[in-house]
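Q: What does the assembled structure look like for these inputs?
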Amino acid sequence: MEHFFSLLVRSIFVDNMIFAFFLGMCSFLAVSKNVKTALGLGVAVIFVQLITLPVNYLLQTKVLDPLGLGFLSFILFIAVIAGIVQLVEMIVEKFSPSLYASLGIFLPLIAVNCAIMGGSLFMQQRIVMDATNSQAITCFGDSIAFALGSGIGWALAIVCLAAIREKLEYADVPKPLKGIGITFITVGLMAMAFMCFSGLSI
Amino acid sequence: MANKNNEALKQPIWVNNPVVVQILGICSALAVTAQLKPAIVMGLSVTVIVAMSNVIISLLRNTIPNRIRIIVQLVVVAALVTIVSEILKAFAYDVSVQLSVYIGLIITNCILMGRLEAFAMQNGPAASFMDGIGNGLGYAAILVVVAFVRELLGSGKLLGFQVIPQWCYDHGYMNNGLMIMPPMALILVGCIIWFHRSKNKDLQEK
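A:
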C-alpha cells in the first residue's frame, strides 16, 4: 500500500509527464488557451490513461512476455489505445451527450497523445525494474497508481499553463515572441519550478 | 511536377518547419536533445519513417475507408517504427538505450500523423516521399541546433569529444548544469521560434 501511494505522488510531481519527459506536448500547447477546455481535456486524459495503462499492463505480463512476443508491443499498444479511445468516445456519446459536446474533437485526438503511449512504454520499462526501486511496477495495483498519477500530473500541468496563458493575454510581449514562443519559455520556467520536487524522497 | 516535388522538399526545412512553425513533434524534439549523437540518430530515424510511411499511405490512399483511416495509418507507422527500433537495438545498442521510450514514441509523433493526414492522403507517392524527407530534415535540423547548444554549454563536449579546452576550466570556466536539465530545452526552442519569427514576419501573431 505504501508503494502504491509513493508511486502515485512520484508520478504526479517528480516524474511529471510534461515537465520531466515532455510527453503530450502537442495537445498541451495547442489546447491550453483557456482553463475550461484545458480541464476537460485533462479529465479525458486521466480517464483514458486509467483504462489503457492497466489493460496494456495485463497484455504485456500475461500475453507478450510468456509468449516472447515483446517486439509486437508497439503495434499492440497503439491498437489497444486507438480501440479504447474509440470505445470511450462511443460510450460518452451514448450516456452523456453534454460531456461529449464539451470534449468535442479532443477525445479522438487522445489516441495520438504521446502521454498515453508514453505511459504504456514507461510501464513496460518499469516492470523489469528491481522491486525495491521506487519507480518499479510490480503488480496490477501499481499500474493503476502509475496510470492515475501520470494522468493527474498531466491534467495539473495543462490547467496551470492555461491559467498562466489567460493572464499572459494582457502582457506586452515582443512581437516575434507572441503566442507560441512565449508559451515555450513559460513552460520552461514552470518546468524549473517543478524541478524542486525532484529532491522529494518518499 | 518536378517543381512541385522540389517545393515539397524545400518548404518544410525553413519556411514551414514542422517544429517551430507547425508545432508538431515537440515531445521527442525536447527530450532527446541533451546530447548531439542521440539527436542525430533520432532525426534520421524520423526522416526515414516519415518518408516511408508517407509513400505507403499515399499508395494506399484510394483504398482506405475514411472511417478507419487513423487506425490504418497508426498500424503502418507502428510497423515501421518496430523495424527501426529493432535495427537500432541490433546495430547501435547504446544509442537505443539512451533514446529509451522515445523511439517507440515516434508512433505518436504528431509530425507523422500530421503529414499523413495533410499531405499523403491527397498526393501521389513521389511528392509524398519528398514531403516526408523535407519534414524529417526540418525536424532533424531543429534537433541538431538545440542539441549542439545544450551539449556544448552543458558538458563542454560535441558528439562526446571534449571541445572546451582544459585551461578554460583551470581559469574558472564551469559547465552550465542547467543546460542538460529539461527546462532549458523548452527555453531554447522558444528562442529559436523567436529568431525564426523575427525573420519571417508574416508568421507573427497580432
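Chain A touches chain B through 46 residues (CB under 8 Å).
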